[in-house]
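Section 5: illustrative case.
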């Protein structure tokens, strides 16, 4: 049996204690991605932020000066069912909307560009105060930006045009299930999870 570093570090994977542990969306997605890899369902990885080191004290193992080399694109990418997957994950404390200032214009452009080349691209947005996590396709995001002159996406837009991702034991944030239903008609996924 493959032992995950995420699962190994968390002996108590009980959802009833989830709210008390203060785990963030990124941690939950990393757990889910590890689960997908172990089960040979999908290979999705967190992208490293491109940083240029300027001044390093190698004797002390200390980075004294560094800067972002280029703007990062999105948080995660990989492959599922022969399709390139690319997405950004964000959290908001708001109960009513997700501010577009939380996502950079170059990230939105990247999501649209890869979608236009055949990728499945999307946002995963967690409304922490509501304990709700949504999958919002790039197509829906693009339509919102084109049709509304707002600086934030209301929660009702997520409810009407997104898909809620229910918290589970494994995988914790099952966004592949949403992708499978939206893009592949629900085929093959349940067999690989067993």
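Designed sequence:
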């Amino acid at each position: 049996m493959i032992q995950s570093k995420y699962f190994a570090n968390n002996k108590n994977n009980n959802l009833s204690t989830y709210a008390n542990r203060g785990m963030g969306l990124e941690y939950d997605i990393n757990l889910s991605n590890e689960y997908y890899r172990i089960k040979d369902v999908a290979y999705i990885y967190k992208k490293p932020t491109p940083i240029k080191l300027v001044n390093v004290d190698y004797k002390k193992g200390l980075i004294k000066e560094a800067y972002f080399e280029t703007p990062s694109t999105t948080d995660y990418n990989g492959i599922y069912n022969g399709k390139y997957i690319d997405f950004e994950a964000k959290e908001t404390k708001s109960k009513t909307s997700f501010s577009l200032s939380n996502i950079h214009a170059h990230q939105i452009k990247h999501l649209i560009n890869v979608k236009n080349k055949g990728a499945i691209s999307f946002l995963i947005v967690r409304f922490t105060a509501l304990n709700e996590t949504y999958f919002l396709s790039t197509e829906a995001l693009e339509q919102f930006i084109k049709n509304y002159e707002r600086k934030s996406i209301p929660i009702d837009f997520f409810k009407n045009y997104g898909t809620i991702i229910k918290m589970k034991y494994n995988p914790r944030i099952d966004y592949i299930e949403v992708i499978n239903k939206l893009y592949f008609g629900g085929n093959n996924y349940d067999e690989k999870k067993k």
